[in-house]
Amino acid sequence: MTTWFITGCSSGLGHAIATAVLDAGFKAIVTARNTDKVKEFERAYPDHARALALDLTDKSAIKRAVAQAEAFFGPIDVLINNAGYGYRAAVEEGDEEDVANLFNTHVFGPVALMKAVLPAMRERRSGTIVNFSSIGAQFWNPGSGYYSAAKMALEGITLTLKTEVEPLGIRVLVVEPGAFRTDFAGRSLTGARTKIADYADTVGPRRPENDRTHGTQPGDPQRAARLIVDTLAGTKLPQRLLLGSDAIRIVSNALNRQLAEISTWEVASGSTDFPKDA
After folding, report:
1. Cα angle 163, 9, 244; round to 5
2. How far is CA 150 from the centre of its chain?
3. Handedness of CA 225, 18, 106, 156 (dihedral sign)
4. CA gap 235, 70 in Å, rounded
5. Which CATH superfamily is domain 3-269 in?
6. Element (H, E) at 190
């Protein structure tokens, strides 16, 4: 029976994915910083779920969690790097400690988890790694520079990993969700400690205290979770899986703008080559 290791299961998409996985009859290691928030899974699925505390900024904790997971259920077949939170600040406002924590949670923690499960996956020549990115990796809003940078970094690593391990039988997928009705725009959204008045018109409307989208997002976490489980049950995965009609619209528009700009600057960009007869 397939064993899943899922991060960020206390709420939102992580909670929904854990529920869908367990409802499908799979085994799951459900993790959160505080196990009190995920113990419900053990009570509801006593033979298939184990709750573990996991702080993605603690590399030793990551190694311990993977070892514990393997002791519970054996090798990890599917790793879901879902845990994360939002951070909004003008680039100039970004606090060094806050930005470091953001990258540790969204980039270096997931990388450490991948490195922890990959040796066994390589040995078995099977396994699946799913990393949650964001449409913020494809387009850029004022105030989301650091968050977008973290997701772009995770995508770059993930898509490179895909080229390295798919010949070994390991599947890799990037998920880019749009806006889902989770706590992301609520309690999970953080912001700059110090605000600069000159950014009131650009970053200001998107600061956590001014965000009014919480509870109105179009995305349904349960539907997304079922799609992910169904997609991973298939034999072929896309490179990126967009979640939500807003994601399709926003990313398509962003890519079309990029293509138009490349076309506009094509002659100038190509002029930097050595002459063909040189």
Report:
1. 65
2. 10
3. negative
4. 25
5. NAD(P)-binding Rossmann-like Domain (3.40.50.720)
6. strand 189-191
Token reading at 211: 């965000």
Residues noted as catalytic: 133, 147, 151
- Position 212 confidence tier, pLDDT thresholds 50, 70, 90: confident
End-to-end CA distance of the chain: 62
Of 192, 182, 246, 177, nearest to 214 (Cα)? 182
- Which one-letter amino acid corresponds to residue 52? L
* HSE toward the beta carbon, residue 105, CA cutoff 13 A: 21
Q: What is the pLDDT of residues 123-160, one digit of tens each?
A: 999 999 999 999 999 989 999 999 999 999 999 999 99
Contact between residue 137 and residue 155 where contact means Cβ atoms under 8 Å apart? yes
More confident residue, 102 or 219: 102
- Taking a C-beta distance cutoff of 8 angstroms, is the pair 51, 42 a contact? yes
Question: Which two three-digit tokens encode residue 215?
Answer: 């509870």
